[in-house]
């Protein structure tokens, strides 16, 4: 057993040269995603392996649920993203591909783990502004919107539960 557990292990040693499709299902907690991620992640890796390197195209699908910034109703945010990685056995790999970062394969442990990359990609899908949605005019579609001019926040200033929610939002 490895002391450091790999949650999305890609065992290069067992793969022949050519194109492979690898499928993984991983729970958000396993790869340290925040509690707002409540669905399992579906991870598909298209892997193109040659004698010197492995080119990965990683597809990530899941969803997260955050409170709406305006009305605090839960908002489901779909996560559907992809990214590319290249792993090489030595420095001979050409740095030709745009936006590809060439990483080293450890010959003593040729099992690469894309957990951190998947986590980072999933978190990048969460926008700073999270609201129920917008109609064609750009107006929020909250069921119970809180118009600023109706100073709902002012009315609730003395409600400690509201303060707690506000501070939670600021911390994120
Ligand atoms: Zn809302």
How would you describe the overall organization of this protein?
This protein has a domain at 9-127. The chain is built from three helices and seven strands, in the order βββββββααα. It has helices at residues 115-124, 152-155, 160-171; strands spanning 9-11, 18-26, 41-49, 53-67, 74-88, 102-104, 111-113. A five-stranded mixed beta sheet has the order 2-3-4-5-6. Strands 1-7 form a two-stranded antiparallel sheet. Strand 4 and strand 5 (74-88) form a beta hairpin. The chain is elongated. Bound molecules: zinc ion. Zinc ion binds at residues 68, 70-71, 73, 131-132, 142.
Descriptive labels:
binds zinc ion, 7 strands, 15% helix, 172 residues
> What's the gyration radius in Å?
21 Å
Neighbour order of strands in the largest sheet: 2-3-4-5-6
Task: Tell me about the largest β-sheet.
Answer: 5 strands, mixed
**Which outline best applies?**
elongated
Strand content of the residues, in percent? 25-35%
- Give the ligands present: zinc ion
Distance between the first and last residues' Cα: 36 Å
**What is the SS-derived class?**
alpha+beta
């Amino acid at each position: 057993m490895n002391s450091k557990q790999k949650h999305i292990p890609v065992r290069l040693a067992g793969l022949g040269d050519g194109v492979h499709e690898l499928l993984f299902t991983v729970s958000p907690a396993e790869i340290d995603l925040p509690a707002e991620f409540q669905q399992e992640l579906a991870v598909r890796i298209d892997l193109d392996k040659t004698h010197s390197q492995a080119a990965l195209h990683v597809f990530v699908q899941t969803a997260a649920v955050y409170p709406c910034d305006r009305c605090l109703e839960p908002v489901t945010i779909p996560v559907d993203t992809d990214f590319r990685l290249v792993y090489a056995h030595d420095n001979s790999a050409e740095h030709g591909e745009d936006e590809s970062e060439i990483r080293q394969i450890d010959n003593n442990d040729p099992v690469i783990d894309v957990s951190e990359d998947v986590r980072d990609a999933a978190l990048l899908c969460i926008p700073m502004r999270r609201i129920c949605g917008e109609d064609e005019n750009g107006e929020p579609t909250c069921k119970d919107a809180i118009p600023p001019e109706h100073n709902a926040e002012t009315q609730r200033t003395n409600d400690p539960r509201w303060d707690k929610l506000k501070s939670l939002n600021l911390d994120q």
